[in-house]
Batch of 2 targets.
Target 1
Amino acid sequence: MMKKNRLEAFSDGVIAIIITIMVLEMKIPHGDDWAALKPLIPVFLSYVLSFIYVGLYWNNHHHLWQIVDRVNGSVLWANLHLLFWLSLFPFATGWLGENHFAMWPTALYGFVLFMAAIAWFILARTLIRLHGKDSPIAEAYGRDWKGKLPLLIYTSGIILAFWNTWVSQALY
Amino acid sequence: MMKKNRLEAFSDGVIAIIITIMVLEMKIPHGDDWAALKPLIPVFLSYVLSFIYVGLYWNNHHHLWQIVDRVNGSVLWANLHLLFWLSLFPFATGWLGENHFAMWPTALYGFVLFMAAIAWFILARTLIRLHGKDSPIAEAYGRDWKGKLPLLIYTSGIILAFWNTWVSQALY
Amino acid sequence: MMKKNRLEAFSDGVIAIIITIMVLEMKIPHGDDWAALKPLIPVFLSYVLSFIYVGLYWNNHHHLWQIVDRVNGSVLWANLHLLFWLSLFPFATGWLGENHFAMWPTALYGFVLFMAAIAWFILARTLIRLHGKDSPIAEAYGRDWKGKLPLLIYTSGIILAFWNTWVSQALY
Amino acid sequence: MMKKNRLEAFSDGVIAIIITIMVLEMKIPHGDDWAALKPLIPVFLSYVLSFIYVGLYWNNHHHLWQIVDRVNGSVLWANLHLLFWLSLFPFATGWLGENHFAMWPTALYGFVLFMAAIAWFILARTLIRLHGKDSPIAEAYGRDWKGKLPLLIYTSGIILAFWNTWVSQALY
C-alpha cells in the first residue's frame, strides 16, 4: 500500500509552479508611464482568470485528497494526466492574453479547460475503483453528476462567455 | 475538518517560487566587465527590496500558521488571494528596477504591496472567524491594530520613501 | 541515521520544476489563428514525450522510496546525480522540438535519457549497499536485470525510433 | 517554540528552484548540428559547477538540520539571508558561462560563493546561540574552524583556480 502524502506534495509543487509561472507571461513593458501598462490589461485579465481556475483545481484536489485513503500506480498516472493538462494553462493563458481573447486562443483555452475537467473525472473514477463503492470517496464523487457538474458548468460557461465576446465583436 | 499542513506546503511552494523567479529579471549583461553590471544596480536593489518583503510575508505566514488550528474553504480562498498579490511582486519589481524607481512603477509597486497587506488582513480575519474570539489567533491578531500596524507602516513607509525620491528628483 | 523524508521532498520539488518548466519552451506564437500553432506541433510532441519520461522517473522514484529505510551521504549525492541528468531534459526537449526531431538533437536526447538511466542504476546500487543484501530493496532492485531492463528498453526503444525516423527521412 | 519542518520545506523549495532554473541559462541553439552546441560548452561547464555547489549547500543544510531542534525569528532571517545569496547563483553562473570564465564574471562568482559561505556561518552561529553551548549543534559546528574550513577552502580554491586561468590566459 502506497502512502498518499508524497503524491500530495508533488501535486502541490507542480500546481504551485504552474500558478506562478503564468505571471511570467506579463512581460515587463519598456515605458515607465501608465500608458505602457495598458496593452497588458488583457494579459492581466487572462492571468486572473487562470489563477482562479488553477486555484479552483488546487482547492478541489485538496478536498478530494482529504478523503483519499491510499493510492496505487493507476492513481499516480491519473494524477499526472491531470497535472499535464494543468501544465498547459500558462501557454493557453499567454496566447489568450496576447491576442485579446480572439477566437482561436479562446477555443484552445476552452479545450485545455475541458481536458483538465475530463482528467479530473478520470482521477476521481480511478480513486473510486480503488477505494470501493462504499467508501467516502464514492459517496462524495461517485453519484454521477454531483462531482462533475460544477466543473462542466464552469467550462461551458467560460467557453460560451468568450465565444460570445468574440461573436459580438465580429458582428460590429 | 481540514488539516492545515497541505495549505502550508502549497503556500511555501508558491512563495519559494515567487522569491526565486524575481532574480530572473536580472538579465545577464552582454559585456564581461564591471561597467556591464552598472545598469543592473537598480534592478538588483529592487530585487533585494522585494526579497525582504516576500521574506517578511513568509515569516509572518509561518508565525500565523503556528497558531492556526484548522482551515476551511474560506481560508483556502483567502490564502490564495494573498498568494495572488504576492505573485505580482516579480512583475512590479521588474518594472520598478528597469525604470530606476520612476513614478508610475513606484506607484504600482506600492499598490501591490498595499493589496498584499489588505489580503493579509482578510486572511487573519477569516481565520479568527473560524477559530472564535477566544482563540490564540484572535489574541494575537484580533485586537484591532496590533497585527495590522506593522504592515501598514512598512507599506506607507516605502511608498513615501520612493515617492519622495521621485519628487526630489523631479525638483532638481 | 538520516531520515529519508527531506530527500523525498527535495526530489519532488526538483522533478516538479523540471516537468513544469519544459512547457516554457512552447513559446507563445504571434498569430492568433490555427496556422500559428502548427509550427509548435513538434515542440508539443517532444513536450508530451518528456512529460511521460519525467513522470515515469517520478513514479519509479516514488516506488523505490517506499521501501527505502534510511539514507546517507552517498545516497544524497547519487540522488543529486540523477536529478542533474533529469534537469537536462528541458534543454534536450527544447532542442529536439525546435529541430523537428533531427539527428543530433535526437542523439543528445537519447544520451540524456541514457545517462539518467545510468544514474538510476547507481542510485539503486548505492541504496542496496546501504540496506544490505537481504533488504526488500535488494529483493526488488538487486536481482540483476529486473529493475534495469524496463529503463534500458525504453531508452533503446526511443533512440531507435527516432534514429529510424531520421534515417527514413534522410533516404527520401 | 517554532517547529523546524516548515523552514526545511521552504528551504528545499527555494534550493530546488535555484538548482533547476540555472539550466534555463543554456539557451536552445538555432542550428541542429553538433557545431551549434559548441558555444554552449562553457555555459554547460558553469552549470555543472554551480549544480555541485548548490547541491553541496543542500547537503550541508540537510546535515545541519538533522541536529537542529527548534528555530526562532533570528534563525528564519539568517536562513533567508543564506537563500538570498544562493539565489544569485543562476545570475552569476549565467554571466560566467556566457563570458567563458572571464575575469570580472569569475570575480563576481567568487564573491557570491564567498557571501554564501559567510551567510552559512551566520546561520550556524545563530543556531548555536539558540541551542546552547552544550548542544549537538555546537559540538558539530561550534569548535571554531571545523565547520568553517571546508567551505572556505572550496571558496578560495575556486577563486584561485579561475583567477589563475584568467591570469595565464592574459599572459599568453
Target 2
Amino acid sequence: MLEISQRGQAMPVSPFRKLAPYAEAAKAQGKTVYHLNIGQPDIQTPPQLLEAVQRAHIGVLGYSHGAGTESYRRKLAAYYQRTGIPAQFEDVMVTTAGSEAILFAFLTCLNPGDELIVAEPFYGTYTAFAIAAGVKIVTVTAHIEDGFALPPLADFEAVISPRTKAILLCSPSNPTGYVYRRDELEALLGLCQKHDLYLLSDEAYREYCYDGATATSALSLPGSEQHVVVMDTISKRYSACGARIGALVTRNQQVWTAAFRFAQMRISPPGLGMLLGEAAAELPPSYFDETRAEYQARRDLTVRHLRAMPGVSCPVPGGAFYVIARLPVDDAQLFGQWLLEEFSHENQTLMLSPANGFYQTPGLGQQEVRLAYVLNQRDLEAAMVCLAEALKVYPGRVELAEVQLSEAHAS
Amino acid sequence: MLEISQRGQAMPVSPFRKLAPYAEAAKAQGKTVYHLNIGQPDIQTPPQLLEAVQRAHIGVLGYSHGAGTESYRRKLAAYYQRTGIPAQFEDVMVTTAGSEAILFAFLTCLNPGDELIVAEPFYGTYTAFAIAAGVKIVTVTAHIEDGFALPPLADFEAVISPRTKAILLCSPSNPTGYVYRRDELEALLGLCQKHDLYLLSDEAYREYCYDGATATSALSLPGSEQHVVVMDTISKRYSACGARIGALVTRNQQVWTAAFRFAQMRISPPGLGMLLGEAAAELPPSYFDETRAEYQARRDLTVRHLRAMPGVSCPVPGGAFYVIARLPVDDAQLFGQWLLEEFSHENQTLMLSPANGFYQTPGLGQQEVRLAYVLNQRDLEAAMVCLAEALKVYPGRVELAEVQLSEAHAS
C-alpha cells in the first residue's frame, strides 16, 4: 500500500482557511462576505515597487546569489539600520517570504524532536513548519485578560526541558496585535542566555504599531548577537504578500552559515520579487505614516464596535492588524460556520478566524475569534454591523463572565 | 552552548560551488574564467515572458491560491497535455521552483528515516533536500561505460528494504545528460508497482533532447497514476531560473492533497513569477526548436573536443545540457582547483564541477567532471581549447585504461 508520510498526514489545515468552503457556498448564494479571516492587506502595493520591476532590463532572468542579490541585501541592511536594528549586509539573507525564513530557522536551530517554546495564541502556521521540520512546539499561555502580554517567566521556566532549543516570539503579534515591551524582550533574552536557547523573532509587522509606539527588535537588544534570529518579510510592510520576499537576519555567523546551506539547497530567492523588494527598501520612512494612520483608524473602529456589542470583550491591540475578541457564543467555530451558512444582514455576512486554531492547548480560545482589519473603513463598518446583528440572533449565544481587562497591559 | 542542528551541520556544499573561491581568486588576478560548472542557461529569457510581467496591472500584489493562480495552472495543464502528459488542472500544483517540488515530494512521500533509491551520479542537491527532510538516499550506480543508462533492475532490487518508499529519477539527466528510454521507465514503474514505491520524476530538462529524440514523462506511462510524482520547473525550459517557478504534478489525489498542506504552509508561490510562467506556458512548441538546435550544436562541439583530447572519454549525452567526461587526471577536484589557481592559456581558464560531488559512494567519479554547455559556441570553443591545453601540462596527469563505451546505450 502506498502511504502518505506521517508528517503529510499530520499537517494541519490553516486556521484562517477552515471555513473557506462555507464562504464559497455563501458567495454562491449571492451573499456579500466580508473577509476578516486572513491578513491579506487591501492597501495598494506602492506603485513605485511594481514600476521598479517593470522598468528593469532583463536579458537572462538568472539565479542570484543564494542569499539574494548584493544590491538588495545592502539596501535591506540600510533599512534595518535606519530602523535601529544593527544588521550589516553580511547578516542579511533574503528568503522566499517570511515562510522560508521560519523554515530555515527551524531547520538550522533545532534537531528533530527538539522543543520550541511559543506563547499561545500564536500564528497557526508555525505548527505546520514545526511538523515539516520535526520540531515539537511547547506552549505557555497568554491571556486575553492581560491583553495577551508576555506570560510570567516562571511559566517559561516551567516548560524548559533538556530538549528545549529555542523560544519563538512574534511582535507585533499575529494573532493578538500585542507589542512586546522592551523589558519583556529583555526578560526573554535573559532566559535564553541563562538556558542557552535561541530567540527566534518574527517581526513581520514591525512597522505597524499605533498610538505613537514603536516595536523593539530583539536584534537591537544588547547581548542578542548569539541568540537572536529575526524572521522578516516585506509582505505586510508594503502590501506585497504575493512577491514572496522575506529575510533571515542574524549576527550569529554560525547560524547564518548553516542557514545559508539550506538557502543554497534551493539556489536563490525569487528574482523579480527582489527587484520589487529593492525599491521597497528605498521608500522613505514617511511611507509608513499614512498606512499606519489608516490601520490605526481601522483598529479604533473595530475595537469601538466590538466593545459596544453586549458580552463582547477585546483588548486594544497595540500593533499588527489583528484583534482577538471573546464573543458570547457556545463555540466560535460553530458561530463562524453559522455566520456563513445561516446568517445574513442585508444580504451580507462576514468570515472570521476561530481562535482555537491559534492555541495548541485543547479547549482554549473556544469563544475567541481573530479579526483582521484589512478592509476599507466602510466595509469594516458594515462587517461590524453584521457581527453585532448576528450576535443578537445567534441561537448558540451564551452569557460569559465579563472579562476584566488589565488596561496596564492592554495597549 | 548554542549549537547548530545536526542537519544544519550535515548540509553539503553544492558540488558545483566547491571551487567558487578559487574562481573568484582567478578573476581577481585578471583571468577570464569560463563557467562550465553551473547549469545557468545563457540563452535569453524570451522577451514576451518579461513583457507579460511588465504589462500586468497590479493594484495589490496579494497572495494567490496555495497551488498557484487558476489561470496559470490551467495553462500549465494545457502545456502538459500538448506534450503528451495526461495532467489535468487539478493535478497541477505550482511551486517555488523545482526545488520546492522536490522538498514537498520528499516531505509527503517519505517519513524521516525512510529510504529513497537514486541512481548515481545524481543532482547533488537531492542530498541537501534529503537531509532537510530526514530521508536517507540509497544509491545504485550507473556507469560511464554504459553512457549512464539505467542500471540493471537487479541492482535496485538488491537495495530495496522495508524502509524504501520511493525511487527518484531525473530524465533527461542532470548531471549525465542520459535520457531514459520508455522501456527503462516502464521497468522502473514495474518495480515501483511490485514493491509499493513512489516514482519521483524530475523532468526539468524535458524539452532538451537531441537527434530527434523526445523525453518520455513517467506520468504518461499506463499504470503510473498512483505512483508517479513529477517535479518540474520552468527554469531551464525557458532560461528563467530566477523566476523560481516550478510545479509538482501527480494524479495521486492523496499525494496531491497532502503536498497541498505543505504548500498552504508557505501560503503561495511567487506572484510575479507566475505571470511570467503563464506567458511561458503559452509559447508555441516551435519556441523550443531553435533553443534545442543551439544546445545540440554546443553538445556536438563539446563532445567532439573532449573526444579529441588524448585519454579523455565521454558518452554522447542525449539531452539536458551536461556531459560527464572522464579525464586522465589523478583527481578531478584537484585538477579543477589547479585550473583556477595555477593554469591559464592566453589568460583564460575554466571552471568545471568535479563529478565526485554527484556520487554518493565514496571514491566514485574521482576522474570525472561535469561540464555544462551553457556558453555561446565561441566561448565554449575557447573553454575546450583551454581544457585541452591544461591536460597537456597538468602535473597530476595519469594514464587511464581506455573506457569502452557501449554505443548502444551512449546516445
